[in-house]
Amino acid sequence: MEPEVESPSGAAPVRSVARAVDVLLALGRGPRRLAEVSEEAVLSKTTAYRILSTLRHKGMVLQDETDGSYRLGPACFHVMSCVVSGHAGFPFDAGRDLESLRDRTQETVTVHVRAGLSRICIQELPSPQTIRYTAGLGASAGIHVGSAGKVLLAYLDRAEREALLSSLELRPMTATTVTDADELRRQLDEVAERGTAFSTGERVAGAVGVSAPVFDGSGAVIAALSVLGPEARITPDRLTDFAQLVRETAERITGRMPPI
């Protein structure tokens, strides 16, 4: 028997919608055959097939004609595009937290998410100061570049991280971008142990960043929260204070994530 889905707010969820989301989340981990979707979404094959057929009709799912496997479709990328462009609004319940972090640090606050081998800025609150560093809403960079990228890599499952690193071309953006795979692995282990990542001039010379992870309800990293600013203004003492503020803010946001 398929389990009932309970809402954390106590309101009864729409069962068919909850099941469709479970199917999309299963496909978010990669192409799946019907039996695999059925198992991962905890649905009968008949129910899984019916949902997949509906999602195909709406462009949310594609089916490979050669092996019959399913994968996310173009409509999903349209939704992602809306998030990245800011048209969909901020996807986390964190507006006040981000504003507070920006006000307390007086530096730019950003949120990045992983997109394949890149990381993309989906939210940015610029520093109120005249001289400031900004990433740019929708801007992307290699996943290995800067503190945000290191956070998104450090908390991946180790096998997934290694598979991703093996496919990366560690191209430099500045003279200080980490391009040695072993050194990057060492730094990622430190990030996972410490809970924050730091970078200086890896994407833009003279820019300093400190980042912390935001996790979803299942404990998987979904975003990197960062404070960015000019190196001349962010002293070592201020950087230590910023690291604590970023980590505490990321933990508060994580604490409000619904279970998956």
Task: Report on this structure.
This protein is an alpha+beta fold and 260 residues long. The protein folds into 2 domains: 15-72, Arc Repressor Mutant, subunit A; 80-255, 2-Layer Sandwich (Beta-Lactamase). It has 9 helices and 8 strands. It has helices at 15-27, 34-40, 45-57, 74-85, 95-105, 146-154, 158-167, 181-194, 236-255; strands at residues 61-63, 70-72, 108-115, 118-125, 140-142, 197-200, 207-215, 221-230. Strands 5-4-3-8-7-6 form a 6-stranded antiparallel beta sheet, sandwiched between helices. The protein has a two-stranded antiparallel sheet with strand order 1-2. Strand 7 and strand 8 (221-230) form a beta hairpin. The longest helix is centred in the last third of the chain and has 20 residues, at 236-255. It is globular. Pfam families: HTH_IclR, IclR_C. Residues 68-259 form the IclR-ED domain.
Write a brief caption for the model.
By secondary structure, the protein is of the alpha+beta class.
Largest sheet: 6 strands, antiparallel
CATH superfamily of the largest domain: GAF domain
Largest sheet strand order: 5-4-3-8-7-6
Number of helices: 9
Shape: globular
Highest-level CATH class of the largest domain: Alpha Beta
Helix content: 40-55%
Mean pLDDT: 88
Number of domains: 2
| CATH-derived architecture of the largest domain | 2-Layer Sandwich
CATH topology call of the largest domain? Beta-Lactamase
Which regions have little confidence, pLDDT < 50, spanning 5+ residues? 1-9
Keywords: DNA-binding, Transcription, Transcription regulation
Protein name: IclR family transcriptional regulator
Domain IclR-ED: 68-259
Domain HTH iclR-type: 14-74
